Amino acid sequence: MKAKITEHSIRLFEQKGFTETSIQDIVDSIGATKGTFYYYFSSKEQLLMDIHMDYITKLLEKQKAILSENASCKAKLHALVLMLLESIKTEKAKALIFFREIKNLSGEKLELILQKREAFRLGVEKLIREGIEIGEFAEHLDANLTSFAILGMVNWSYQWFNPEGRKSAAEVAELFMDIVLHGIEKA
Amino acid sequence: MKAKITEHSIRLFEQKGFTETSIQDIVDSIGATKGTFYYYFSSKEQLLMDIHMDYITKLLEKQKAILSENASCKAKLHALVLMLLESIKTEKAKALIFFREIKNLSGEKLELILQKREAFRLGVEKLIREGIEIGEFAEHLDANLTSFAILGMVNWSYQWFNPEGRKSAAEVAELFMDIVLHGIEKA
Amino acid sequence: MKAKITEHSIRLFEQKGFTETSIQDIVDSIGATKGTFYYYFSSKEQLLMDIHMDYITKLLEKQKAILSENASCKAKLHALVLMLLESIKTEKAKALIFFREIKNLSGEKLELILQKREAFRLGVEKLIREGIEIGEFAEHLDANLTSFAILGMVNWSYQWFNPEGRKSAAEVAELFMDIVLHGIEKA
Amino acid sequence: MKAKITEHSIRLFEQKGFTETSIQDIVDSIGATKGTFYYYFSSKEQLLMDIHMDYITKLLEKQKAILSENASCKAKLHALVLMLLESIKTEKAKALIFFREIKNLSGEKLELILQKREAFRLGVEKLIREGIEIGEFAEHLDANLTSFAILGMVNWSYQWFNPEGRKSAAEVAELFMDIVLHGIEKA
DNA sequence: GATGAATGAGTATTCATTCAT
DNA sequence: AATGAATGAATACTCATTCAT
Lengths: 187, 187, 187, 187
Fold this sequence. Notes:
4 copies of one chain form a homotetramer. Helices cover 72% and strands 0% of the residues of chain A. Chain A is mainly α. Chain A has 2 domains: 1-41, Homeodomain-like (Arc Repressor Mutant, subunit A, Orthogonal Bundle), CATH 1.10.10; 43-182, Tetracycline Repressor, domain 2 (Orthogonal Bundle), CATH 1.10.357.10. In chain A, helix 1 packs across helix 2 and helix 5 (73-90) packs antiparallel against helix 7 (107-133). The N and C termini of chain A lie far apart (58 Å). At the A-B interface, helix 8 and helix 9 of A face helix 8 and helix 9 of B.
């Protein structure tokens, strides 16, 4: 039941937005009552928190797996970008909620999610720093800023990337990595 | 008075979010009454629309000026990136509202803003296409996707870029352009 | 200008109802401003009062003229019924407002209109009483109740009578008078 | 609780009118809160609809019972008139709301009530037509118009009929039927 | 585990009216 | 004679949350 509520919430939040979706909407969509909702969740914000937590936790796990592989920094970065685009593809609704509805978290909950988000970014930053140190990436780069640049490029795609469209996630990742690695200027 | 309402609204929307800011909050902040608000704006959404319209219109004007300059595509792209970062710097609140609160527009209003957003992106795409044609940018590039990549990188910065921080807008633009033009891979 | 406001108000009150029509609606319809309205009318209720007053005053004048004719009671009653139906025909909007929007008057204004309405009814009652006395109408009739019966029959027609429809005002008056004078039972 | 809200609403609508009665007035009168109101009714209009529906449904049932009696058309017509006057007597407030506040219904709701009202009138029209066919009523009558005449006479009485007054419902019915059947002209 | 009734604080919006100019 | 800015009180309606059963 808890899982059912979560699933339906995600769909509704994606379509109408968090604030615009009432608890009544949620329970109506699964034929339950509000009482039931509050049996499983202490508040509406808690439900949103759960969704965020679930998403970022999985992302961090996948990141950890990728970073601990025995591969070049370049290859790891490519894997990360692809993983993020795949996430947007397979969990479009969750990704959208993760980026769009974070402002509806507050206090400790918000703090916790922001920490995990930052941890993810630091993972990228660390990868870039390593790449610079071992001579894979250019030495003049600002690792911090570069992580923001790459994550911006990738994260923004939740706004326009259509998994059913002209390009697959793998193709977009390929093209993004080409730009990130070699730039757009004619050699 | 209309300008005063708009200014205060922007500050409040930035801090608390559009939905979370009530008309009462707005008029309280300037010592007016709700009646006064509705004398100047037909609805809360109309106020948000005005803010969006103002922001995107100015952006389009600046883009137009840049694109009609007599300069290389590279220089124009740099100018565009810098202009966007400057916008985020000088009009941080408006930029944030522009990216974060668009979902609170609906119907024709939304349509109109989306059109203008797309027009801006098409300006970037066209510039890249031109650069490819005249041999400034690599010929294998997908102009469409590249425009999304660059705009993602830049737009995302409203989420983290702090104009009072370690790096100025010009410096960030410089670093972004370095990545965009040459990539991060060690030559 | 005063007449113009009144005319347009009548049309709007007829279509949307008194409460549902705002002063803004009224002044918009003639391209004036609210200030102008209050230059000519002390309140919205006063405007409604004027409309009522105008309507009932004309009705009373016409009634007076009919009652002072040199004719049989039967003929006078017929003339009265016809006059009322003609009023509904030529001044449909005013008639409708007169019957439907009276509840929006209050205090002295209401009192005054109710007095005039009652004066009109008493005119009918008096006519019936005379008719009974001089032997034109059945002696067992209750003049008071009969006046209510006849006025009900006629006044109610503002709810269904369509001057452009199958029957003209004169024809309806004819048929009503037939029922009123002879009843519907087969002789 | 739903019944309680309905009862109190009827009393308030009767006294102050539908538009002039706020939800706050209603819930204050029974010591409940607005939330409670909206737990039972989806809107203020829905409450009005319920009241209308209840009234007209009962009227139609009673009409059906009367029309299916084994009696003369004359007797049935008398029974109908009496029934309506009794309704106005015992459910004065509902009757008043039914006639006065119908304009506050709109869309499908209005349509439905108007249909039922028309069904009631058609019942009367049919009765008159039958009476004409079997020779109880004068053959030259227009059944349609006659139904409007009789219903006007009776319905209008909600405006003046006082059940505690000089005449009882039965007496008024008697006098109305005398006029309707035999007319007022001296034989 | 689940329900249904109740709450109360909050929200956008409307509008008749006033008044200085 | 007319305007336009401002008001403030009122209104229908929403919704997350509580709690006894």
